[in-house]
What we know:
alpha/beta; Rossmann fold; 3 domains; 6-stranded mixed beta sheet; 24 helices
Amino acid sequence: MADVDVSNSGQSQPFPELRIVLIGGRELRGNPSNRSKTGNIILGKSVFDTKRRTAQCAVGQQAVHGRQVTVVDSPGWWWHYPLENTARLDQLEIKNSIYMCSPGPHAFLIVIPVDSVFPHIFKLSLEEHLKLFHKNVFKHTIVLFTAQYSAVSLEDEISAWPALKWLLEQCGNRKYVLNIHNTQDSTQVKTLFEKIEAMVAENAGGYYSTDLAAGDALRQEMQAIAHRASERFAEVQTQRRKLKALIEGGKTPPQHLRLVMVGAQWSAKSSAGNTILGKKSFAVDHRRTTEICEMGHGMVAGRRITVVDSPGWFYNHTLHDTCEMDKLQIENSIYLCPPGPHAVLLVVGLTSAFNASYQRSVQEHMSLFTDDIWKHTMVLFTRGDWLAAKTVEERIESERGLQWLVEKCGNRYHVLDNTKYYDEMQVTELLEKIEEMWAGNKDPHYQVSQGHAEKIEARTEAGNKKAEKIRMITWKQSRMLRELFKGERQPNTDLRIVLVGRKESGKSMVGNRILLDELFDTSLMKKEFQCNRETSKCVKRIRNVFRVDVTVVETPGWPTDTTIPPWLKDEVLRGASMCAPGPHVFLLVIAISKAFTEKDLKAIEEVLKPFSERVWRHCMVVFTWGDWLSNRSIEEYIAAEGTALQRLLEKCRNRFYALSYYGGAVMELFRKISDIITQNKGQCLTTEDKPGKKQKLLWRLKQPTLTEEEWDRREQELIDRMLKAVAQEPEEPTLRSVKMSGSLDEAFIPYMSGEAPSEYGGPIWRQKARAKVSEWLKFGAGNSDVTSGVDSMSVSASYMEKLDGNPLTDKIHHAMQCFYPEKDKTMNHTRVSTDSVKTQHRHSF
Length: 845
């Protein structure tokens, strides 16, 4: 939209007419926007529908307090999304809002719940969406806080969020609190009008004027979309009539329909599967629930139905980004209903734009199958309630990506509203469309290769065996070192940690979990908002956790598939010097939801190279998005991901930990860190600045004598030899694996980013967590016997200063006897692979 000037009527008295536009975003979860309810309160009557989303601008007029008031309710955007993730239809409607109250609004009211969060990411989203108007919009804006009660501590809320303070500054500190619970209090509306009129007076009686030419162009675009939508609808109906004629002519559809559902994470696949089957066959909550393919069966509309639900991928991930474990499961989905599916339902949510990255992601992930897959594919749009008064054809015609997708699927698509699970007609119509697609295809179903199915089974079985081997090795190493250095742990009075990892790995979340507070910026949309600044700096945060000083330094991340620039290596080196006298531990942060490649390994090695090879004695891998595993173990992910990740873990002495967003024992992470400190006898890597010389790395010892250094080297060599020997031991009976609890599936709306989100823990949770962590930090504790997805054992060691050669040899000999008795009944646990159970279904038809 072209920039326009604000008109000036020259009036200073209150206007007999007020024109108001309601704008604002929606949170992914939590507080509703309350815009429609606010509009009804202002007008004093129910004009706007508060039970469904505003997808099309709605206008209401009423005489209120002696003024003729016009209120326009506009569609909201997701506060976490940039403009490119907002559907084009919504963008057009937001633009159109100012033309619904000609000649222009006196006031924009940005509606925000008073107890809502307002992080920096909301500011970025607001700035981008206000570009739909011109730069002078803030001159005509009041921030309207909605509250459910009268006593509101607004200043406390504002002080908690710097982005909110920025917004108020942009609006000339104009704000108002509206109690939406007390709809009968007309005085608060009158006071709001007075504030609006005062703002108009500040603007010399001006209102936000509209550009007539821009308005005409906008209307023409919306009309063109509606016209194309009508044509597409007619084309689809003609196509359906031809296919129905084939069925009516004697081509009888199969009585048993086999359906496979694929699509991006949080596209509501699981919910759609339940809607189709008319029962809760697939788990659905606010976390990820489909980590392996699952099947559901039922009788629906006189047909026998089998539905296969597959794991989703992040909508903006390339195929290269998706972890091997997920790719294998997605590929495996079509083999679970032999001889092949009649239909593949490509699930796309209507809650966000199908932009270029989304289109690329779909195209690449569908390449896991052969090109023939498209002949049997139908687009299944979910969240049909998001359309409201709009048609799905209008949505398709407004986005080129959707046009490409629908045409790729032969103009076959259907809309489901999972909130209307009781509506059998929408499911019956879907099944009819599937039967019509079947009638039009030469092949009755998608042909699968039995040979390829056997290869997938072999890969799955090999991965399970590898996972068991990893689990056994870490278990043996943990037991050996626990006995070898038993009782040697010392209290810690401080703890210094450096976080290293690529962009969107979740470093900020790890830092917040360690410090038990939201001290690092966890903007969920860093990638979405192009925050790839090469000038990123290390961020240091300190927190005293019950008399233990914990320092965490977050180093800048690097983009995927890029070489490490020199400035980043220097910055990581500087980060280590920020926690003087030096870090105890380097936590290498890796997101489970993403693939780990050879390039990732080389990048980490390059970043840590300035610290010399001894840095690996201080390193541990922390996996984020542990919930992504759901019921799978972290060892399964490590085994599936390949040699690059496994080599990194070997460098870190097999020390790793999977950190869950939705809970998890962070206390165990502190125990593992304490083990590393104990093993290194309190040593830390530090830097020293000397005039005229380059920054030099030093190894700081508690008792830096030559004899001690030599003994330390010999001791570490012995430990490393022991660990390698354990890794080469023949396989033992398998251990029972403790699985990850919880998941990340969301039949609602995605965090459209790989960045692990932060946790908004309450004060009670934080106090309890700090108390537990403090206990481990201050006094230490013994190690666990079990390795699993959450609590995979780390290698531990202790002080050896007081031991001479013979006692050490005796201690090792004793430890070896403890670890490898002839009969160790603790090893006689078995574990049944969920994949093997799922594979059995393949031959059940």
